[in-house]
Amino acid sequence: MAGNSVRAWTRPHDWAEVVLGAAMMLSPLVFETSTAALWTTIVLGALIAVDGLVSLSRPGLVYGEWVQIGFGVLLFISPWVMGYTEMTAAAWMSWLVGVLTVIVGMVALPVAIAAHNRTAGQH
After folding, report:
1. How far is CA 85 from CA 33, 37, 75, 77, 88, in A?
2. Which domain holds residue 50?
3. Which residue intervals define the domain SPW repeat-containing integral membrane in the entry (predicted)?
4. Closest listed residue to residue 101, CA positions, set 78, 81, 123
């Protein structure tokens, strides 16, 4: 894994971020949502997926993992902030994907830092 952490498109946690974001974006096709829930899940899901793709393409980009953690926190609190806690499936999807996004981002952070440190002298 150490050798793969500096190669683009090889880190499984970044692929997990892409999958989590895509699942969140597609969740309104399965779960009942309000307009606020629909746009919140689509936008945050897309941002999570895009950030995962950026992290995949640039393994030493440390701030991308911090952004990912921030998106996970936003997704977790969104049912309360956007008012869709009564839509049980959509709310639980937001909570679950939010927590998983934070966990995956935290796991990826030290790997991104190590990749950054290995490539820092190569600029």
Report:
1. 10, 9, 12, 10, 6
2. 4-118
3. 13-105
4. 78
